[in-house]
Amino acid sequence: MLIKKSLIKLNQNNNIAVAVLAFSYNESLSNDLLTHDEKEFFSNISYNKRIYEYYFGRLVAKNALQLLEPSLKCKDIAILKKNNGVPIFKINKKKICSSIWNLSISHSNGIAAAIVTNNNISCGIDVEFWNQNKMDAFKRLSPSYNDSNSLLALWSLKESLVKALKTGFIEKFSQYRSKNFQIKNGLAKCCFENYKNYNGLAYIYKDMVISIVLDKNNYIPYKKLQNIWINL
């Protein structure tokens, strides 16, 4: 299996980790990395693109958790979903409780990314790629911004926000309005007008962006987020 991988801890407290994988849609896949529950769901997916995104979404989330729990193997970790679609861990190892970890996953165009935090830190992650149709849609939703980097970063940051909230876009889009949005040298940051407890950071590289949203009490080092892309 030929994949590129970038793994990084975002802080010194051993409670936030990010993993990113770059893969192709013709990789050979090994079921040995999936648990029984995951294999059962995996076997019922018929759409080829969805098969790869499901598989590598699970793998990248397990890699992120392994940064914080090095004793775990992939087969010890199952990633399941709540009824609302929010991913959760099921850990099959004594002395490690599944419920102490939060998880967010994103995948797009051969990139899979995940962030794992301990359960008192809300987290969201998103990966987006530029295309004209997206830009036209983003422009309609954020008419105050004209340049493609700002539009791409803003959309991704709002995607990360609703993942941190564990709700999806259930409100009017204006409810997720950003505040103090700044962008410079590919790095974008903002807070949110109606969700004052959250801050977001995004890094734009070529035609793609990765964004992370965390509780405002948790600092995201700019350089580490940038290095996630550089290390791929």
Task: Report mean pLDDT, rounded to a whole number.
Answer: 88
Unreliable spans: none
Order of helices and strands: EEHHEEEEEHHEEEEH
Helical coverage, percent range:
25-40%
Shape: globular
Per DSSP E runs of 2 or more residues, the count of β-strands stands at 11
Summed up, the domain count is 2
- Category by helix and strand content: alpha+beta
**According to CATH, what is the class of the largest domain?**
Alpha Beta
Q: Count of DSSP helices?
A: 5
CATH homologous superfamily title of the largest domain: 4'-phosphopantetheinyl transferase domain
Query: Mind telling me the C-alpha Rg?
Result: 17 Å
N- and C-termini, Cα separation: 16 Å
The biggest sheet amounts to: 5 strands, antiparallel
- The order of strands across the largest sheet is 7-11-10-9-8
Fraction of residues in β-strands: 25-35%
Looking at the overall shape, the CATH architecture of the largest domain is: Alpha-Beta Complex
CATH fold node name of the largest domain = Ribosomal Protein L22, Chain A
Polypeptide structure, described:
The protein is an alpha+beta fold and 232 residues long. It has 2 domains: 1-121, 4'-phosphopantetheinyl transferase domain (Ribosomal Protein L22, Chain A); 122-217, 4'-phosphopantetheinyl transferase domain (Ribosomal Protein L22, Chain A), CATH 3.90.470.20. 28% of the residues lie in helices and 32% in strands. α3 crosses α4. The longest helix has 21 residues, at 48-68.
